[in-house]
Amino acid sequence: MKKNILTLLLGCIISMGFAQGIPSITLKDLAGNDINMSQISKDGKPAILCFWATWCAPCKKELNNYTEYYADWQAKYGVTIYAISIDDSRSVSRVAPYINSVSWDYKVILDSNKQFAQAMGVNNVPHTFLVDKDGKVVWSHNNYAEGDEAELEHQLEKLTGQK
User: Fold this and answer.
1) How far is the C-alpha of 126 from the C-alpha of 57, rounded, in Å?
2) Are the CB atoms for 47 and 40 separated by under 8 Å?
3) Residue 121's CB: how many other CB atoms inside 10 A?
4) Which of 158, 126, 145, 114 is nearest to 23 (CA)?
5) In this predicted model, what pLDDT tens digit does every residue of 40-61 receive, in sequence order?
6) What is d(CA 100, CA 117) in angstroms, rounded to the nearest whole number?
7) C-alpha 125: how far from chain center
8) Across the chain, which distance is largest between two alpha carbons, in Å?
9) CA 119/CA 121 separation, integer angstroms
10) How far apart are CA 2 and CA 133, in angstroms?
C-alpha cells in the first residue's frame, strides 16, 4: 500500500513538473532586446529551450548537431529553438563571437545570472525543454549524447501530430 501511494505521489510530482508553464522572466537577446520568456510560444507554435554555455563542450555539440535538422523542424513542426546561454559575467563576452563562428539561426538569449535557469530547475547543462503551443513544458532532457536529436524529433512528432 505504501509503495502504491509513493508511486502515485511520484507520478503526480513528475506530471506537475512537465505541465509547468514558462516563468515570466525577462532576459536579453544578443542585440539587447528584452524577451519575456513566458511569451515565447504564445504564437501557437512549439519551442525548444536549450540551456548551454560556451565552456560546455556537450552543449555546443548538441546545438551544432541540431543545425542539420533545424530548417526541416521549422518547416514540419513550426518550432523555434532558443539557445539560452548561462555564461556568467566572466564568460558572457564569448557568446557572440562563438555564435558568429558557427552561424546558428537560433534565437540566442542571455541568462547570465541564471535566474531563468533556476526557475526552470536547470542544475547542469546541456538541458533541453520542449514547450507546447500553450507555453507548457511537455518534455525535458538533461545532458547530450550523439543521436539525441532523433528522440527530440520523435517528441516533436508526438506533440504536433506531424511526421
Assistant:
1) 9
2) yes
3) 13
4) 114
5) 877 789 999 999 999 999 999 9
6) 24
7) 10
8) 57
9) 6
10) 37
- Report d(CA 132, CA 151) in Å as an integer: 16
Residues shown for the chain: 163
Q: How many domains does the chain have?
A: 1
Q: pLDDT tens digits for 61-109?
A: 999 999 999 999 999 999 999 999 999 999 999 999 999 999 899 999 9
* Residue whose C-alpha cell is 543521436: 147
Rounded distance between C-alpha atoms, residue 54 and residue 111, angstroms: 13
* CATH code, 148: 3.40.30.10
Domain holding 9, by residue range, is 2-160
Instruction: Please answer whether residues 120 and 27 qualify as being in contact, where contact means their C-beta atoms are separated by less than 8 angstroms.
Output: no
